[in-house]
Amino acid sequence: NGLSTSSYSMLPTEMNMDMHMFGAMYAQTDNWTWMFMANYLDNEMEMKSTGMMAMTSTMRTKGWGDLSLSGLFEINSWDEEVLLGSIGIGIPTGSIDEKNGSTNQPYGMQLGSGTLDIRPGLTYLGQSETYSWGAQVSAVLRTGTNDNNYSLGDNWAATGWLSRKFSNNLSASIRFTGE
């Protein structure tokens, strides 16, 4: 974008995010499954000053993120294949007010989105005695702006995979994903 490092007093050099996910599923019927997901985040970002005296600092946030409630349902099935749909919501329970001293942490260090998020998805699965394959598209669609007057961007993801079973205890798979 043409900006030099002298435009900033601090630059990020490394970021680590640990996420512990806790989930539960309940199959209400053969064609409808409820899913609940909560996550606990531990974010750490190393920063380096751009001035004459090289200083480093660390920013950290940790706590519960947004909750997710969704439903998974069968759209169609035939022989060894099935088409599944999902629809869910992200409930803004994670903090968007994390601070580093008196300064707000960057967006990526916040624990939640602060907005109600819609989470649609579509999954195709196939399976034979030896192989399984599939593809999935999903999204996180933000609704409005949060209490701090910003909105995280929408997120779209796609993935495809192929797996081969060698025995009851051994298989190999390959997956391609984009976000």
Tell me what the structure shows.
With 179 residues, the protein is mostly beta strands. The chain is 0% helix and 65% strand. The chain has no helices and 12 strands. Strands 1, 2, 3, 4, 5, 8, 9, 10, 11 and 12 form a 10-stranded antiparallel β-sheet that branches. Strands 6-7 form a two-stranded antiparallel ribbon. It is globular and about 65 Å long. 12% of the residues are buried. The model has no long low-confidence stretch (mean pLDDT 92).
Protein traits:
10-stranded antiparallel β-sheet, 179 residues, two-stranded antiparallel sheet, mainly beta
Concise account of the structure shown:
The chain has strands at residues 10-29, 32-49, 56-64, 67-78, 81-91, 99-100, 103-104, 117-118, 121-127, 131-142, 155-167, 170-178.
Architecture blueprint of SSEs:
Layout: E1 10-29, E2 32-49, E3 56-64, E4 67-78, E5 81-91, E6 99-100, E7 103-104, E8 117-118, E9 121-127, E10 131-142, E11 155-167, E12 170-178
Antiparallel strand pairs: 1-2, 2-3, 2-4, 4-5, 5-8, 5-9, 6-7, 8-10, 9-10, 10-11, 11-12
Structural class by secondary-structure content: mainly beta
User: Major beta sheet, specifics?
Assistant: 10 strands, antiparallel
What is the radius of gyration computed over CA atoms, rounded to a whole number of angstroms?
Answer: 21 Å
Q: What share of residues are in beta strands?
A: over 45%
- What's the end-to-end separation, in Å? 22 Å
Helix and strand succession?
A: EEEEEEEEEEEE
The total of helices stands at 0
Number of strands: 12
Helix fraction by DSSP (H/I, runs of at least 4): under 10%
Mean pLDDT score: 92
Q: Could you list the spans in which at least 5 consecutive residues all have pLDDT below 50?
A: none
Q: What is the 3D shape?
A: globular
